């Protein structure tokens, strides 16, 4: 049987500046979102963040980190948190996603972790990894929010992570409010489009960049690098296009 792992590489401080970052963005020119992601990732790699990718210019990768230093409002000890697991296009159906998840699970066991967790939802949402896929590995729902989001975990020792208490809060701001960090290359362009639309339509907006681990852990909502509030209520972790933004503003 072909050894799929032979085709993968892990990003390091030495190669992160040169490697393709695996998203769909294909720009020959410098792309501000990609470069912001590269800068963010360069700092995280020093902390134990793992970015493992197929050695091609395609979208085949997994990205995870120790939960204690993951930029999400989830608490627990000795867990890995999976930010992203994506396999797209011509690479689907070849066992790459299975290989990536098996690598993360084995890595967690080797490092003496208690398990692995990730963000999910009662109904699969865009910009979240396929939860039906990870449930095949034994991931189970261990915590929920009133907004329909779920925390999925594969526990090795019976312990369970949970959402921080602040996740279930509302905010005082009534205007459109977006929390974001630069982990995802698409965040930069999404924020710019939203900002432009709001300026052209005199729509008040608060854009709050999450630029420290502490800010991420204290967020008043679930978060996987983006979160939207309107009229004080949490709306979504999905990146917004203009059509979706219009629907939210009509509520």
List keywords for this structure.
251 residues; alpha+beta; Aminopeptidase; Glutaredoxin; 2 domains; 7-stranded mixed β-sheet; 6 helices; 13 strands
Strand order across the biggest sheet?
1-2-3-5-6-8-7
Distance between the termini: 54 Å
* Highest-level CATH class of the largest domain: Alpha Beta
How many strands, what sense, and barrel or not for the largest sheet?
A: 7 strands, mixed
Q: Rg to the nearest angstrom?
A: 18 Å
Number of helices: 6
Order of helices and strands: EHEEEEHEHEEEEHEHEEH
Tertiary shape: globular
In CATH terms, the superfamily of the largest domain is Gcn5-related N-acetyltransferase (GNAT)
Q: What's this, in brief?
A:
The chain is an alpha+beta fold and 251 residues long. It has helices at 32-45, 96-110, 131-135, 185-200, 213-217, 242-249; strands at 8-10, 50-54, 60-66, 74-75, 79-87, 115-121, 140-144, 149-155, 162-163, 176-180, 205-209, 226-230, 233-236. The model has no long low-confidence stretch (mean pLDDT 91).
